[in-house]
Amino acid sequence: MISNKTKYALRAMLYMASRPAFQEPVLAAEIAEKEAIPRKFLEMILLQLKNKGLLSSRKGKGGGYLLTRTPDQISFGDVIRVFEGSMAPVPCVEPGRLAQCPECQGTHVCAVRGVMRELYNVTVGILDGISLERANENARRAESVNMYFI
User: Fold this and answer.
1) Domain boundaries along the sequence of the chain
2) Is domain 4-148 classified as CATH 1.10.10.10?
3) Distances from the Cα of 125 to the Cαs of 84, 113, 118, in angstroms?
């Protein structure tokens, strides 16, 4: 399960990506108001996203936060990793890590590891495959289907 901080980060990034002028700075106050996110909490989130290279900022008049890449080049996985870290459900399935569960008899005989590796691969594949742009397009499409005509 992802934290509220991560959900707020995704909402903020989706808002920034949905603006026609996504390459123009947007104020934290605007995002907080439009997405109903507590402003002080959002400012901490935006700073973390900036420190991890997903956002940049400009100071002064006309300043604010900007995406560092186009919305089609930022995935849900990119944003989630900033706040949740690895998406591996157990340490032994994370690529590049040789960690083993304390109770493990050996990764070569562990049936749990096989299932967890499959879960990890599917999860990462989905989250890294959904860009901010694609998520916003899906939301717009769903919204148009749910419109009522009188």
Assistant:
1) 4-148
2) yes
3) 16, 18, 10
